[in-house]
Amino acid sequence: MAPPTTVPTGFKRYLPPLGSPAYHLMLGVVAMLVLGPLGGISAAFMNFSIGFFVGGQVLAGILGSTVTLPYGPEGRHGANYMQTMAASVAGMCGMGVVVQAMAWLGLPEPPAWQLVLYFLCIGMFGVGVGMLYTPLLVDRMRLAFPSGFAVANILRALTDRRLLKRSIAQLGGGLLVGYAGGWAALKLPAVEAIGLSTSTFGAGMVVGARIALPALVIGWVGEACRPHLIRMAWLEADAPFRKIGFIVALGMILGAALVDLAVLLGQAVRRLRQTGGAPLETEADWKRVNTFRLVLWVLAWAAGIVLVGNRLLHLPVGYLLLAVLLSFLFVLVNGISLGISDSNPISSAFVMTVFILAALGLTDPAVGLMCAAVLLIACSEGGDMQQDRSTGWRLGSSRVVQFRYQVIGIAMGAVLAVVLAKTFMNAYPVLRADQFASKVENAQQWQSAMTYKFVGALRGITRAQPHVMRALALGLALGLVTELARKRLKGSRRYQAFVQGRRVGKASDFVVDAVLLPSPYASSFGGFVELTTIYWWAAGGTLASGFDWFQARRRAGNAGQADAAIPADMSTVSLLGGGLIAGDSLAALSLGIYGLVGTVF
Questions:
Q1: What is the pLDDT of residue 72?
Q2: Distance CA 197, CA 176 (A)
Q3: What is the distance between the alpha carbons of residues 144 and 147, in angstroms, rounded to a whole number?
Q4: What pTM was estimated for this model as a whole?
Q5: Phi-psi region of 163 (alpha: psi -120 to 50; beta: other; left: phi over 0)
Q6: Among 296, 375, 430, 468, which is least packed, fewest CB within 10 Å?
Q7: SS3 411
Q8: Which of helix, strand or coil describes residue 509?
């Protein structure tokens, strides 16, 4: 006898069944017509006006969950698919700075359809490479991906009434504080002066002090070394440490990644010998991906980049091939950085590519811009892929379906990136004025810091900069030695017995991780951002770890009474941190739309 069919009640009876074609059509329409354009306009506006943009995963997750709320807990997958598509649209729209850089450099703009096609090929290639690294970064390394973590918690809380009752106060309170702080940081000079970033503070809460404090240590070391760096002519007298620090930081990540890749390769060889090639365990259905088709996808779009770049944009094949190869390295490195610190250093990948091409003899800024754009877009979209897969890993969402949604978002975003860039630049001619060459009047609203960095690097490729390569080599050595020392220490049985045996051992282990021998992935964040930002990052991590330590002591005598039905990673601090990130994203979106509407009308 067949089980009785449950008849939907309430508002749910007007919605299409879960998993049906109409269901996915509904999700796609909402993501493409509402969530994606909102995030895309915000990303473009922020990049032109400030020089950075909010990716949009958290924001799209919140808005998307309102659509799937009637479905109950199963609605979390639909909300995840929508935020995946919307975030891809937003990420691509932020790449309109490439078009602005062309104007600053005085380069002729290719036809819009050629730019769209080039951006499309790079975006599709980037998500494919990002998917290839998912088993390593998400499944094996289990990196935190703070924004992906926040999205997962938000979707679980907003689609499960039981979890909603428990978490609404923490999540809602964090969201309100994050919105107020984000609004104040962008609108009030006194708050802007202290560098308040509620999303940075919230991300620090998600990762904790062991990850947050190392960046502060590097930031302090960098400031202490500034006079010496100036004497060595590595820095100008008024330049911040991060102008050269981000090169050292990239080298640190590369060095640590080389160690980890060698270890993982050794483990893979040993496992292959033990099993004779047979898999150790069967993957869950939602994890399964056809690797052969994925590799073909990556190769096909890589060929598309070279073909479009050479035939339509007249770029040298050799430099295009090098940019594609570098993308495999930087998508991995940036993915690790994003997973550890919630920072995807896409502009650093762009600048590093320019330096590498210049070291090989490139002197044409136009070629440098378009070839480095491969790294810029691929790292941005590959990072989004990892962030979204970390959310899907926590929710159990189908990776194949999520990939399809992201691909659609890339296609739409490639078109919007060029359309929005040209719309802004035609409406406001000040955006075409080269702020790097001279001071531009009435440019206070349009700082375009990312474009400024790109054009500065491209203008410098005709001048020899040997100190850049020395800084990269220094960082590579630091990362390599530090990661080797950490693995040797952490793998010692005597050290593990010391750490687990007494309270002083745990305290010593914390000092090792946070100060004495921190992970290069964590400490490198101190080279990418200003010291003020690091203070908020470290403050969030310290507060979260202190609160967790206090809560653990309180629960020490009641360990068996914990609510096993509540996910372990939905702690108070993670919900508050996720709310702060979400609130800051909402503030950026609302102010971005308000600024655009205000300037138009």
A1: 78
A2: 14
A3: 9
A4: 0.73
A5: alpha
A6: 296
A7: helix
A8: helix
Q: Which DSSP category does 448 fall into?
A: -
**String of DSSP letters for 83-121:** HHHHHHHHHHHGGGHHHHHHHHTTPPPPPHHHHHHHHHH
The more confident residue out of 320 and 199 is 320
Separation between Cα atoms, residue 10 and residue 4, nearest integer Å? 19
Give CA–CA dist 518/482, Å, rounded: 8
Give the pLDDT of residue 255. 83
Q: Cβ of 7: how many Cβ atoms within 10 Å?
A: 7
Sign of the CA dihedral running 470, 471, 476, 477: positive
User: Could you tell me the CA-to-CA distances from 365 to 218, 373, 457, 493 in Å, in that order?
Assistant: 33, 12, 9, 54
pLDDT tens digits, 506-559: 888 888 888 889 988 888 888 877 788 889 889 988 998 888 788 777 766 565
For residue 142, what is the DSSP state?
-
CA distance 36 to 84: 10
Question: Is the Cβ–Cβ distance between 448 and 47 less than 8 Å?
Answer: yes
| pLDDT, tens digit, 9 for 90 and up, residues 290-325 | 889 999 999 999 999 999 999 999 999 999 999 999
Nearest to 424 by CA among 456, 458, 454, 451: 451
Most distant CA pair in the chain, distance = 85
Tokens of 488: 């040797």
Least Cα distance to 568 among 210, 208, 149, 169 occurs for: 149
Tokens of 61: 């997750």
Return d(Cα 34, Cα 28) in angstroms, integer: 10
With CA atoms as reference, report the closest residue to 98 among 330, 488, 371, 284.
Answer: 371
